[in-house]
Amino acid sequence: MPRRRRTAPDRAPRPDPTTDARLITDPGQAAALYDEIRDASIFALDTEFVSERTYQPELALAQVATPGRVAILDPLVLPDLGPLWDLTADPEIEVVMHAGEQESRFCWLEAGALPARVFDVQIAAGLLGHRYPLAYHSLVGTVLRRHAERGQTRSDWMHRPLSDRQVAYAAADVEHLLPLHEALHPLLEDRGRLAWLDEELARRDDQLHGELTEDRWRRVAGAQRLSRRELAAVRELSHWREDLARDRDVPRRRILRDDLLVAAALASPVDLEDLRRVRGMERLPHRDRPGLLDALQVARELPPDELPAKHRGDSGGPSQARMLALTLEALLESICIEREVAPTLVGGAGDLRRLINWHLAGRDPKRPPRLLTGWRAQVCGDLLEDALAGRVRIRVGDPASTHPLVVEPA
């Protein structure tokens, strides 16, 4: 997904949450805030939500910071937050967030589009060598040298009226986002890494778009190891569960957990007596058991050419691949520290195994592993490939250094 080129942020007065934060419940006040966002062409966004009770997470608050103030929109009182999500999806307006996946999901649900122009301060900091993922309060302390309260993770944000302390916490969660943008943006620009941020955000958008628009059954935990017939059972059971959860407006796990769904696919019971023999199925209400059996029957009757294909995943590879991954993990961390990029943002053990298996399988140019694409290739790809090909040797230089490994031509 294309992203607009970023421009350097203008210095602006920082909002004082103790005087400027307002809980907005009046549509006229909300409209004035939207006008303010349009005029500024930049705003910060955070949300409070509850995901334990309903099919889709319930939005409890939307916190907004403009260059002039912090405001908190109450969606339980305001008739419609559609204009806010339209602004979030507007490519002319930059949205500053911290780990903004859930905000992007709300934008998709309400505006039918993902945010077009995001600056995620957590990813930006990782691209500058800060630890990743860094919690909001830690990021504020590390980058701005200010104190930020930890969020109220156990607070019931759907309860009204909100307490003064809840409002203060909600305001604090968005208060520092524009100053973080102001601090991190020029550093990324100086190091030529704004394009890296855009690329990483576009990749995550594509991944999130796939999750929001494609069937969920491929992501059922434990399904990757099943046969094609068992995968068909997972698919049919997942569709059955999805329909029930949507109709009853409850989380999917309230209908059937992933592990029990996979257990049912493996056991493939044909009647209620068989189903009772599957451990854990006693939790499934009696009214839902016939539907589960019907879904399994559909899977059993599918002809072979209609069975889902198995996706090629990371199987771990041969034993030498696991040994090589341990070696390359130390090299990757040393490279990242030297080049001031968070190693955990670049990749982990799974990425290294995929790189090694790709190399051992003949290096298919049509399916390069993630570590050899985009900005990651610039950071570490060439060196990792050279190490696998035996073109370099690795030795310990200064053991007291933050990156003690030295890479030399073989």
Can you describe what's shown?
Strands 1-4-3-2-5-6 form a six-stranded mixed sheet, sandwiched between helices. Strands 7-8 form a two-stranded antiparallel ribbon. The longest helix is centred in the middle third of the chain and has 21 residues, at 228-248. It has helices spanning 17-20, 27-40, 82-88, 101-111, 121-126, 136-144, 164-175, 177-190, 194-213, 228-248, 252-255, 258-267, 272-276, 289-301, 319-338, 343-346, 349-360, 374-388, and strands spanning 22-24, 42-50, 58-65, 70-73, 94-97, 118-120, 392-396, 405-409. The protein is built from 18 helices and eight strands. The two termini are 41 Å apart. Mean pLDDT is 91; it is low at 1-5 and 11-20. Helix 10 crosses helix 12 (258-267), helix 10 packs antiparallel against helix 14 and helix 15 crosses helix 18 (374-388). A hairpin with an 8-residue loop joins strand 7 (392-396) and strand 8 (405-409). It is 49% helix and 10% strand. It is an alpha/beta fold and 410 residues long. The radius of gyration is 25 Å and the shape is flat.
The gist of it:
By secondary structure, the chain is α/β, with parallel strands linked by helices.
- Please bin the fraction of helical residues: 40-55%
Structural class of the helices, strands and pairings?
alpha/beta
Strand content: 5-15%
The string of secondary-structure elements, in order, is HEHEEEHEHEHHHHHHHHHHHHHHEE
- Poorly predicted residue ranges: 1-5, 11-20
Mean pLDDT, to the nearest integer, reads 91
Strand order of the largest sheet: 1-4-3-2-5-6
SS field, number of helical segments: 18
Q: How is the quaternary structure best described?
A: single chain
Q: How large, in whole angstroms, is the Cα Rg?
A: 25 Å
Shape: flat
Distance between the termini: 41 Å
Largest sheet: 6 strands, mixed
Number of strands: 8
